[in-house]
Amino acid sequence: MKSFIQMVHLDLTAIPDSRATATPESGLRRPDPASIRRPPPAARTRGPALGDAAALRAWRAAPGLGEPAGSARVHLRPRAAPGGGVILAGGGRLCLPRGPARPLCVLLRVLLRARLAAAPALVHLRLSARRGRLSLLWRTALPRALGRPEWTFWLVPLRPAGPRRPRRSTSDLPAARPRPSAGFVAQTQCPTDGPTPVVLEALTSDGPQAIQSSVSCQVSPEVPCEITMVKINRNKDGEPLVLTRKMEATLNATYKYNCVYSTLIVSYWQVFSVNSVKDLPQWYRPLDIPITKSGRVPTFLHIPPKSLTWGVYVMRFVVDVYANRNRPQASASDFMYVSIVRSDLEAVIAGGPNITIKFTDQLVLDGSGSSDPDSDSPSQGLRFSWYCTTDPKNYQGHKITVMSNSVCTPKHTNLNWKEASGPVLTLQPGTLKGGDDPFPWMNDQESCSAEVVGFRMTGTTPDGDVVEIMPDVAEVYIARKNLSFASFNLTVGPESETEGADESLKRTTGKFRVEVDSSVVKELLVHIVTEVTVLFTVLVYAGSEISPTALVATFLVPHDIPPMTNQSDLFDSACAVREARVVCLPASLLQVIAQRGGSSECTLVIALQAPRFVMAANDKLVRIALFSAHCLDMYGIQSDWREDTCVLGERTTWRRVHCICQSTRRVRRQLDLIKQASRHLQTHFLTTNVIVVPNPVDLRLEVITSVTRNYVTLFTVLFIMLMYIILAFWSLLQDETDQYLRLHVIILLDNDPYDKVCYLVTVFTGSRYRAGTRADVFMQLMGTEGASDVHCLSHPHFTTLYRGGINTFLLTTKRDLGDIHSIRVWHNNEGKSPSWYLSRVKVENLFSRHIWLFLCREWLCIDTSLDRTFLVTDPDQPINRKDYFLIESAYRMGRDHLWFSIFSTIIDTPFNRLQRLSCCLAMLMASLLCNIMFFNLNRTEGMASGEGSYVRSMMIGLESVLIALPLQMLIIFLFTYSQREPRVTLETVSPRSDSLEQEHAHWQEFLKKWHVEESAHVPTKKASEPPTGKRSRAPKAAKALTTIGRRQKKGQRTVTRTQGQNKNASNANTNNNQVVASTEPSPQAGPVEPKEKSRVVLPPCCLYVAWCLVFVTSSISSFFIIFYGLSYSYEKSMDWLFASFCSFCLSVLLVQPCKIILLSGFRAGRRKYCKNLSWTSKYRYIEIELHGTMNREERKRRHQMIMELRRSRMYQPLTEDEILIFKRKKAIKRRAFLFLCYVLTHFIFLALLLSLVALLRHTDSFYYNQFVRDRFSVDLGSVTKLEDIYRWLNSVLVPLVHNDPNPAILPDSSSKVLGLPLLRQVRARPGDKLCLPANFAQTSMGREIHCHPSYGTDPEDTRSYSGLWNKVLKRPEDKNTDGFTYKPPEKIWGYVSHGLLHTYGSGGYAFYFFPEQQPFNSTVRLRELQSSEWLDEQTWAVILELTTFNPDVSLFCSISVVFEASQLGVVNTSLSVHSFSLADFDRETSAEIYLYVAILIFFLAYVVDEGYIIMQERASYVRSVYNLLNFALKCIFTVLIVLFFRKHFLATGIIRFYLSHPEDFIPFHAVSQVDHAMRIILGFLLFLTILKTLRYSRIFYDVRLAQRAIQAALPGICHMALVVSVYFFVYMAFGYLAFGQHEWNYSNLIHATQTIFSYCVSAFQSTEFSNNRVLGVLFLSSFMLVMICILINLFQAVILSAYEEMKQPVYEEPSDEAEAMTYLCRKLRAMFRFLTFQPRDEDEPEFFVNMLYGQPEKNSRRYLGLKTRNIKGKKMVYLVV
Q1: For all residues of the chain together, what is the average pLDDT?
Q2: pTM above 0.70, yes or no
Q3: Dihedrals φ, ψ of 1169, to 5°?
Q4: What is the DSSP letter of 10?
Q5: Any idea what DSSP says for residue 714?
Q6: Which residue intervals of 869-1002 are DSSP H helices?
Q7: Residues 703-725: what's their mean pLDDT?
Q8: Per-residue b/e over 1095-1112, b at no fewer than 16 CB within 10 Å?
Q9: 532-561 CB burial, b ≥16 within 10 A, e <16
């Protein structure tokens, strides 16, 4: 065979081999093989075509040009070859120094294939031209022989950069004399005709002198073809694909190549067989199997099932690139491993995972359903092994793991049941002993806390019969279970000693307390378990205290004889148990103790005393077991245990119970009775019920040892204390800040230094949501003497105008404004939250003390108005009760709410934040203590489950809050009234009659004079010292004004009011609700002595009392909470924690808000005036001292700056255009937010609906319906008359219902029939019915003609009969009456049955099938029905109804088979099957429950949202299509919720009925019909929800364009729809009349309508028209011409023309959705650039803009000119240029 070689680029090659024609080249990584090479043809060499190739050809052909030569050095890089050896590749650039015109450079590629691993890494090359032919000389160093190396050289001409001389390589070889060195040299001509033999000659005499080799040198005019990538796509690189024989798989590969002149690309698959995934295949021996044949898509390989046997295979994908049709130019491949493994055997035991049988029953386990999935005969070749264990941990998954020696019977040594080797295991009765519950059918198994034993005595009669003998007395010892939980260690230690006491009198003592319910425990047994052989004295005390009066009994307890008690008249010491170390407390003693306590629960302390045997406290020597026991017995297998036969014996201990059973009957009489009654032998079973007394408390044990059992209460208290400490530090800092803000007035920076009058402006910001503002607010005062300049109410060092804030500003004017009558307020709408709710404003003239009040209560926002003017409010003006209630409640909520006030803005009362926080701590700890006390009172009661426990916890929380409320009020009272507030009298703030001279003085100088005069009246207190706390230093830049509150002496000043004073200028405050008094002239002459309202002031020591009360309450509560909680279980502690959380939430969100709301409502009930509102903060009278003054130059410079600032645009209100811009920005932002919310909620709701659809399990329902339909539809089509119904019932229904192996279970399934199947007949009332043409019939036939009654018009028979239709019963019988008793329709669970002709109710003459009985019973009863002529001419319909349940898939299936007697005498049959599932709300953790809750929450949110939209839009709501779509969606959603609850309540009631009446018909068909309706409604809801998604696609321009096109074409669409409808009706009527009698497609109007509609969509079916072919051809031809060719195409043309018209370039405002999407995308881009630290990009991407706003076509000139169009409902004229 001739060998060839081909080189494709640097790293792809193939070496010829006599054993293979193609070998893959592979790297070191096995899963990523390198490319395979195929040899080129011998005549592959082509000369250069253009450019450098032509120059090379001309230069080679030119004679006498000498021998130009060039040298190069190439480094070779090795890699492993697939067939062994190594492949080395390298390349470089080589230039010939001389030529005809310019230097010629070539791209050189070298490849070497060597058989051994050692190979050269450096090759020296010399290229020369001799007589027009290229010659290549190369030299390399070979350390040792390489076998037969194979060389490949490839020369590609390159375009030279210019006529410069190439550099000479330092490794050039001399032309005539090679450089002597260790290595070999060879020479070849280029090009060669395929691989050519060559001899490598040695340059030295050492080693071999020559090496046989082969060389191939090719010259190409262009870059060779290259395959850049071949890869088989796999899930995980390096991992084989694992399949079984029955599995199928599809592999696909991807490849890329670069080849300019390729003519053919060939790809194919090869399959090789290997031993393992670590082996490489023989690449020249692929398998010839059908799956390797390339199909229509050669890159895909499909592995069909059972196409490969078990083993490991290599799937190889090969790509060949052909430049001509002879050989490939390039080739590459990739491969992967595929393992075909055996599937796991499937072991199946019939009957489910849990089987319960009686001890006397035989157990048969059938494993014949097991199979081998890979075998064609699944049951052949299987070997069965049975295993039995009592430990479920031994069976994990599908593996048998012996983790314990828990065998089922004592004779087995391991889990393997060796007696059985077949598919069926049969266990005889009594083989298995049962688990911990030997009698699972009993109701009270948890009471059996000991082993169950049984005995039986038998005797033999003279006849040899074995009979049972009952002994007179039988004593049985029963071992107890779980002894580790029945006792506890008692700490004993030396008794407290007195000095000088006798050693013989020293004792060891121990005591414990126990609580017992005397109504449950009859006798309490105390077993002292110890190895110490000393005499114990047991003292029993009534109650929880140890005192001589509480001692009720004393016992001496030796170690070897029963205890002895002292004789007492209080109780009877007789007791059944007489055992050493067991103290019996009789029932009479417990009753005595209970009577002392006044309840059935008695508390007693038991003390042990013994001679001294320990020197220190020890809890390891003595254990105490407290219990009460009584014996239970059962004769044979009965429903429950008996307590009246056996009694407790005297040998009872904590380890075993002694029972004595006595019989009063004689043995001989008993033998006779047993012999006469029965010969079955019965077993007498015995057990005992042991009640372990819970929660004994060892009084000597340290309680702290219980901390490790329950961390809940400890961690709760620690967490609360930690939070208190953190908030306490925060409160201290915040209180200091509050004091600083209260003591400072903000001086506005734009006050002109040349102004003369000062005004204090107090601004009250509302407490509504987002009432504060970050915008610049401007104010102007307007009075009778002029208006002030515009001032900006802001300061860089103060946060002002926040929500609920009260800020006081010092504002100056050039002169006195007189009586201020209004103020003007606006802001510039800047900042993050510009909207501002202004509640009130108070303006006060600082020098004259005139006050003006403004009640504003308006929003200053872009939606309403940014510029408002408010008129002055008269103090005596009545206030609306609603406004007063809102103001008062908001004020009180931030001031008097104990929890909210901690985080309020500024506290203006002496009751500071730290005190409030401490009060909260005390109240919280007190409520927690009350909670845990309530739980402690109910510790013996069982906690309610489910909703009851939550309600109980919430009620306990509410009670605890109410109990702790008085303590809270006491602490608040002490903190509040033990600190006296500085206040001022009425006349102090009254208008002044005298005033300072203000001429030629600016306001700062005048303020100094005013301060000096005011300070003259304060003889002692410094003006700079605050009344409480440490004064904070104001910032110098802020130039804040120190404000000091100070109380004047009574009568120090008097003010005479004159009529010329401002009516609104007086302000007096007597309590926290400051009252602004009227300024009308006093009727009395002379000074007025003001009356100050008295205020409760407690001594200062009460403040310390309040702190002590907080500390004591918190400490004591914490102590008892922790130590109460240590005795609780984890579950009970969590319940307490939940109740405590409820208590906290109720206190914060219910109790205190209700208190404030009720108080505010009570105050608002009386008439209120403006002066009754709170107008100032803590300090009523303000002394102001200015820090720092300015010189004349500074004052002048400041004046010029302020004047320039006031002339700027900043101090002017916004223009209309600016307001419109702000409104548009806000609208876009709001729309973007709403759009995002709507999109997210929509898709979340859609996901919930899809999850609900998945829960309905449509796929399982389909297969279940198909299974049931296949079973019940057998021979159903052959029923054509009434007699055939009996045949179908006997042949089909009876075998299905009466399944012999499994009664009431359908064959070949696990579907169980629920209740009794019902067969009912609906029939007409007996009586003759005359036909309508009676006169014609009598005339023509001479007799009457009677017709069959019709359903719906004739009356239905509802009477009950006795065996025949002519015997009427006076009263109905039960359901055992076969078919002649009328069953009335269901009232509660009503349903209907749908047939082909009519719809029938749920009533009828009932016939029941009893699946549990033999099939013969139903057959005989059906035969009796048939003989009684149950079906006759009065029969309308016979309906069979039953319900099945498949527990494997939890699906119910309602089945209805309807036989209808038509008027033509033919019986029409129909089968209705519907499967459904029920929601399971009983599981504790279920994702299904969370899904239903989420859907219900969405429903409530949707209803509220839609109601809000309807209230907002009102009449315009119905004008929007999307509103109507939303309304329809909400209505359908409501119907779905109603149907869901209807289905749930129906199913709950029917299931309860089934559990109580299993032998009755169960009407699950009512649930089935509701489920069917719910699925339809869910389908409509899902359809509308998905359709609603189109609304959110309006962000795209093309979607909006299509919508506008449809709207524009809507008139034409309506016109064309009318025409098409007319023609549609014409063809439908004609087809019905012309072909209705002979063609089924036109047999009625519905079929005719369906057929014509199918013609419209070109679905032509059943067009034979066999009765009249000519008319049919004309009918179809005219239909195709008129409807399809003309009308439908015109219909499409109307829409397309409108669409083309809408594409013309027209200006229109972008849609709301597009603007919202643009806003969101900009925010996302900004966020992304911020996170990635990228610069901001101002321009939007062009693609994004075109997608949202479109790019209308601009090329067509026919749209140019003057145009008219309706845009947004308005006719507009525009010019298109």
Answers
A1: 76
A2: no
A3: -120, 170
A4: T
A5: H
A6: 881-895, 913-937, 947-977
A7: 74
A8: eeebeeebbebbeebbee
A9: eeeebebbbbbbeeeeeebebbebebeeee
